[in-house]
Amino acid sequence: MDASLQSVLNDSERLLVGETEAAALAALDEDAAIELESRIRRARNKYTGQYRRSASARVAEHGARGAARPENTRAAAKAEAFERALSRITRRVAVLARQSAMALRAERLEAVRAAKQRDHPGAGRPVPRPRRPGPAVRAEPTGDRALRSPASEKARAGTLASGARRQAKRDSRGASAR
Fold it and tell me: In whole angstroms, what is the distance from residue 96 CA to residue 93 CA?
């Protein structure tokens, strides 16, 4: 880590950030890494909040939080130091989680293989399942594809029109009889 970022941290913060160095991270298991990640995240959130609150308090005199930043460099530097530490520990947690997931997957697959070897008569060799016959193949397309061709649309429109004409004829006969 940069000496300038180290210089703004007190001893306990420096120790906390020091726990995220590569040699220290290599010794951690997954649970310890997750616990360290939560401690680093809390510290990062604390100093980010301090920076934002103090900068927003100066907005009236400076016009913007970014313009108030030079007067608040210590909290911003602490937030940056913990942000970098958080990125290192998060990467390590991801690696450890991926490794444990792969180990768990391999363990489960091995358990399934062992169970299959005991159950099957062929001493672990796979036994082919009998195949079910699939649906019969038709020469003409079925479903929406068969219903939506230009010719079928024209026929459908003609049927609807002739039905409408028949209904109009009936309606006009009923209206004149009344």
Answer: 5
For residues 97 and 168, what is the distance between their CA atoms, to the nearest angstrom?
A: 73
Helices 73-119 and 30-57: angle between axes, nearest 10 degrees:
150
Domain locations in the chain as residue ranges: 3-119, 149-177
Q: How far apart are CA 149 and CA 153, in angstroms?
A: 6
42: pLDDT confidence band, cut at 50, 70 and 90?
Answer: very high
CB 96 within 8 A of CB 33: yes
* Single pTM value for the model: 0.57
How many whole angstroms separate alpha carbon 165 and alpha carbon 157? 12
The per-residue pLDDT for 174 is 75
Helices (H), 120-149: 144-147
